[in-house]
Amino acid sequence: MNFQSPPDNPITAFVAWLSEAEKTEMNDPNAMSVATVDDIGMPNVRVVLLKGVNDDGFVFYTNLESAKSNELSSSHKAALCFHWKSLNRQVRVRGKVEQVCDEDADQYYASRSRGSQIGAWASKQSTPLSDRETLEARVKEFEEKFADQKVPRPTHWSGWLIKPQEIEFWQDGDFRLHDRIVYRRSNDTSDWQTTRLFP
Fold first, then answer.
1. Which residue intervals define the domain Pyridoxine 5'-phosphate oxidase dimerisation C-terminal in the entry (predicted)?
2. How far apart are the C-alpha atoms of 47 and 119, rounded to whole Å?
């Protein structure tokens, strides 16, 4: 990222930064915080893994009955934050969300390990769990159910696409004189506009 002459497309810059992070971060360079808001206006944030990025936006997968999915379904908005400590960089994203198509969800689900596929069936994500044994019993139940066959994708498991309307790049600087550039657009088809920000 050249902060004096930033590229027209922020996704290009993001992919370049992610590629660098993949070489320097010890664990999960694709980890991102996802912020949502519940039906009483209380914010929630958690870390998930980015599983796809292109000009349409940023994709992750989860249980559609989870707290985050319920909040995404209600507000249709989310914020993301990537922080790469090894590079002293951060990227923040805000935008609208929509569920990915079944074809994309099926394709990614098929690429997961069998254990993770079983886990998607066994976990009633975000609901109360009396003890660990209950979860382990559910895992065993679905292992037996799908023994000697492919594990199909549950209808309650899919992905979310965050379609960015704002992307901010932050690079640490000496004496806290950081570099910040924010890209904004009014809709999915409009051109990106850039603004340099005070640190």
1. 157-199
2. 18
